[in-house]
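Sat 14:20. Reprocessing the chain from the morning session after the first attempt stalled halfway. Input below, unchanged.
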Amino acid sequence: MSNCTYGPPMDSDDSDSSYDGFYFSDKMNRPKPAPYVHPEQKLYDAVLDGDFEAVVREIKALLFHVDDSLKDGPTILMYACMNGQYELAEYLVEKLSANVNRHVDSVMPLMLACDCQKKDAHLVDKLVRLLLRNGAVINVSDKYGMTPFMFACRNGFTSVVRMMIKEVSFDAVDNKGCTPIFHAIEHNHIEVVKILVEAGVNVTIANNKGYTPTQVAECHGYYDLIQLLPQAPSAYLVPSHFLGYSTLRDQIPRLFLKSDCPEYFQELNCILQSMEVQNTLRYFAEARISLAEFLVMDEQSLKEIGIEFPIYRNKIMKGILDFHLHHWSKKSIARVKKDGMDNFYEILMIAANHLQQLVILQASLQFVLKNQKAQKLGQPSETQLTILQSNLQGYRDVINEMSRTVKYLGSFSPHKNPLYIDFNDIIAERKRKKVRNYFKYTTILLGISVFICLKCKWFQ
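Finished this time. Tokens:
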């Protein structure tokens, strides 16, 4: 019998082996599969290597459409712009009519040309001119908000910046809130910053973190750039005494000498805060709007003091309307008791509260009258008119009572500030003193002269 070429394996002396399989004496040679090669791999390699002739050859061999993505990525023109291959880009655009506005994942050839890996300004200038000459759009942005002009500013391509500057928006921002000048400042491109400043770029626009271009230059220590940037006007700050009652004259502005603060302006801070528009307080402070003037403001008057956004104006007008619709009761303010032991200061504070309520009532009546004439409140019914007339009579009684109190307290108010100095009176007093001294010494001299004359006559 011939030897078997298969069977159980040769085992050791252990006869109790449980293996009952088979083995093969010859090795099996299985062919290895060839690795997959993308049909566009040679074209891709030629584009990356910058082999112009190989690229042209492969495009013709594959019948590759020039605007198709290469290996599911950018187009050939995009690779040419990104790698600074002007000859290839010119061939694709001029000979094959490649679409210069073709975008892949929000990226376009002009963006890649302005962010070219070869930082050769002359080469980038030629690429950008080629694309613009064939209709490339300038004012576009990628998914990060970056525009071709921003890339040019970031890389310091001065000639490209000059080329685009008349057709771009200086106030365009990326996803971080940065305008083109931010990118020029962060990379310390002095010439680009100078061009932007001369073109009138707005340096007061802050990014999403709240930093202005000047502050970014300060953070990086680029003090030569700070000298180029125009100094923004200092923002108006609301004076501290406008935010709270610091003196007695602020609490009773109509009784004592008037203060520098607009009448009851301190109340505006709380009212605007309840409307969630406290950031508009500086506009009212700068325009010196009193509480009574604020309570009758309309959209036009709000726009005139500088509140530009309609959403803020609408919020304020709605808040003013809600304020006037709130029911007022004379029980909400304190009264002076005849048999009470209140001191003068407490009586004065009660009178101040009454005066403030009268100012509010007067503003509410003006608000109603103003809107009633404009037919914005509708026609009131007979019942509403009767109730209004009754309330007005009650207000008149309160006003009459307050008038007597104010007249009494007003008698304690000095006509002038005790520390008031009238320099005209001082000058007049000095003149009168000189005249008195003149007559005094003149009289003395005359008396001495008469005495001497009499003595001389007597001795004769």
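The longest helix spans residues 423-459.
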